[in-house]
Design brief:
Oligomer: single chain
Largest sheet: 5 strands, antiparallel
Distance between the termini: 53 Å
Number of strands: 5
Structural class: alpha+beta
Number of helices: 5
CATH architecture: 2-Layer Sandwich
Radius of gyration: 16 Å
Number of domains: 1
Helix content: 40-55%
Strand order of the largest sheet: 1-2-3-4-5
CATH topology: Yope Regulator, Chain: A
């Protein structure tokens, strides 16, 4: 009973896939990281920032102009939520070698979190200028 009491209310590990649990362990060095079920997969958050997608046991991180080239150089593709539509999101598949190395994964995640924070900041600025 004591072990159950230690689980935080927002902890989704009990409902997550083995791969998501592995990712959460790998990302343990990041602040307030959690997985939340969404649209048949999981969203990864650091605090309120949405920085990653896990879909069909594939990890995708948020990219920006500075980080996108690292993914492209590694031969990774953008997340396409619909196979029959040309929509691509600003999330790219993380290379398996990165996923397997916790330190490197945390470095890539820090850049994804920064990209998410930058997008949030730009959106907030755009809303203020429209007023």
């Amino acid at each position: 009973m004591a072990a159950f009491a230690a689980v935080k209310p927002y902890d989704t590990r009990m409902a997550a896939t083995a791969f998501v649990n592995f990712l959460l362990d790998q990302l343990d060095g990041l602040p307030d990281v959690r997985a939340q079920r969404m649209f048949g997969g999981f969203g990864l958050y650091s605090g309120d920032l949405f920085f990653g997608i896990v879909h069909q046991d594939i990890l995708y991180f948020k990219v920006n102009d500075q980080s996108r080239n690292d993914y492209v150089r590694a031969g990774m593709a953008a997340f396409k939520p619909y196979k029959d539509r040309p929509v691509k999101m600003q999330y790219y598949q993380v290379p398996a070698t990165v996923v397997e190395d916790a330190d490197e994964l945390c470095e890539w995640a820090h850049r994804a979190i920064a990209a998410a924070a930058d997008k949030t900041k730009r959106a907030s600025t755009a809303r203020r200028t429209k007023r």
